[in-house]
Amino acid sequence: MNTEKGYAAGFRTLDTEVSDRKLPVEGTLPTWLRGSLLRNGPARFEAGSGAAGRAFRHWFDGQAMLHRFAFADGRVTYTNRFVDTPSSRAARESGRIAYPEFATDPCRSLFARFFSVFSRPEVANTNVSVARFGERFVALTETPLPVEFDPETLATAGVVGYEDALKGQLTTAHPHQDPGTGDLVNQLTHFARRSEYRVYRQPTTGTKRELIGRHPVTRPGYMHSFAITGRYVVLAEFPLTVNPLSLILSGRPFIENYRWDPERGTRFIVFDQREGGVRGVYETTACFAFHHINAWEDEDRDGDLVLDLCAYSDASVIDALYLDRLRAGEGVPVSYPTRFRIGLRTGRVETERLAEESMELPRIAYERHNGRDYRYAYGVSSLDGREDDFINQLVKVDTRTGATLTWHEEGCYPGEPVFVPAPDAADEDDGVLLSLVLDSANGSSSLLVLSARTLDVLARAQAPHIVPYGFHGLFTGRA
Length: 479
Ligand SMILES: [Fe+2]
Fold this sequence. Notes:
The chain is mainly beta. The chain is built from six helices and 36 strands. The site of fe (ii) ion (FE2) has 8 residues, from loops.
């Protein structure tokens, strides 16, 4: 029986591309809001069409599309365009799934699997996030080759190569800025006979990466993001790990080689940027997360590391995000904003839930508070923590008091709320949140502009089509 729920409309292919389409706006946009929200996410879920088409299996497998909402003079214009990668070209033009995805594999020989996993990171479907390499804009995924695009037309410019010999087959689509230098910092997992996590920095002026530290690992964990402070880089290794050989030999798609083993617990691997190398590994009970919220060093409490992330009790959320399960309305586990206080001297890890509202796709006032003490986190959430629906509200969490504000409208499904500070903002939450919302009753998507202080809606701009749910974006002052 088809029990498809309203939110399933966000998991269907969008074929239409438009350029600089002026959007109808309700409400009043802040006069100071100038620039562009650039967003990334999956938008094609089949290779080919009709009965002959082959479906991608998992939400994370959908082919990347970029969206741009440009704000200027009280108006909003919208552009959307597929990222032009060999993977999306094969899916669109020849109806083939030609490259391995997160949970969908092409049919390929053992040799080809070996070649792709251990030797040559292939140009992949960069559908997760958007980042800046200095003046360049890139789309990212978890294989290490970014794809550059034009931030105005969204046209694909091509793969960005690195001018170094640093190796690793897996990375995160969530590079951080070093709060001190502004350098980009990221993590590579290198699968080999002796696998390693490798943390590196990349000066904003170029693409030559420098190693900060390495850490040997027998069974690498799945890491979607990590944490940074002024001095430290922290990898959270949840007990979802892989035997690297199975990536080649099992014949299963990438993520299906990972095994959940709660007995291992969660390990925080703390790299010291100042001294180089690993300061220590700190253990606590098992949990799982895609997203870190923020981290900082608490000088008032012995230099403890305070690390906040959106924690699930286990990794079952990955299975819940297969497209057939999502479209059938089977529901999705929820994660909670959770604080880990890591005693670098004592070795102890204390855990505390920060609020009773669930939270995913977290954002903060990044420019001023990344890697530093902060108060407010924003994210998507589920009404009453229910797991029988999809993300259906926005939440703001006061990490000091646990107080929350939410925005919810019946049948509406919001995406990641990107915080844009007001010019000369005096307070941390002086600014707006930009969230793309699917209204399942109207069959439309709108960009909401909300007060970050109150979560009141200031304005909404309706897109010309339903925009499939995306993952991450950024706001740039370039109009
Ligand atoms: Fe992410």
